[in-house]
Amino acid sequence: MKKRSREKVDVGKAVQMVENLVTTKEERKKDKSSKKKRKSQEKNDASVGIVDKLGDEDADHLQKRKEWLAEYHKSRPGLKVLQQRIDEFIIAHEAKAEQERKEKEARLTEGGWVLVEHHKGRKKTTDTESGTKVSSVSQTAVEEKLAKKKSKEVTDFYRFQKREAQRNELMMLQSKFEQDKKRIQQLRAARKFRPY
Fold first, then answer.
1. Per DSSP, which regions of 52-149 are E strands?
2. pLDDT (tens digit per residue) in 118-162
3. d(Cα 97, Cα 103) in Å, to the nearest integer?
4. What is the dihedral of CA 84, 89, 94, 99, to 10 degrees?
5. Phi, psi of 134 (to 5 degrees)
6. In terms of Cα–Cα distance, which of 135, 132, 126, 133 is closest to 106?
7. How far apart, in whole angstroms, are the C-alpha atoms of residue 48 and residue 43?
8. Number of alpha carbons in the 13 Å side-chain half-sphere of residue 66
């Protein structure tokens, strides 16, 4: 292996070399920013050049093209104007949807239907626990519904209830049968002739 010898370096030269590196980096940054500026200026110059070329043509064509450019710029409004138009459209659309919803709800309540809505979150409703809101209903519809409900009441809904009912009925029949048996025996005993 060879040993490398260290050369003596002048401190002044080293400082100059570092300064040169720093200045070249700064110059590169400036060049990049100036390139961007130059490109944007070139684009502007190109659009101005188009207008200059148009100046060479007839006045009618120039007027038409100016109108077209003005129309184009009108069709492309700025961001603020565009945002304002969008907001106006959304507000109008939401108002229309709300109006349609209210009309639909009014039609349903007129027919005697119950409109039930579920709202998530902690909104105040008529029933605080379930979060369910019930709209108004006509009294006649409620009475009709209750009358139908009473006629449809089922006492034995589950199997075990039906089995219990059958068992109870059989027990009652057996007890009646036994009572009838005893009564018949008593009647027979009463009919027997006993001379003594």
1. 116-118, 132-134
2. 766 654 545 555 556 655 566 777 788 777 777 666 777 889 999
3. 10
4. 130
5. -115, 125
6. 135
7. 9
8. 12
Nearest to 133 by CA among 145, 149, 121, 146: 121
Task: Record the pTM.
Answer: 0.27
Instruction: Give phi and psi for 128, each to the nearest 5.
Output: -70, -30
Q: Kind and range of the H or E element at 141? A: helix 139-151
Look-up of token digits 């190109």: 46
DSSP for 8-63?
P--HHHHHHHHHHHHHHHHHHHHHHHHHHHHHHHHHHHHHHHHHHHHHTS-HHHHH
Tokens of 113: 């239907």
Tokens found for residue 87? 């907001």
Number of helices and strands in the chain (H, E): 5, 2
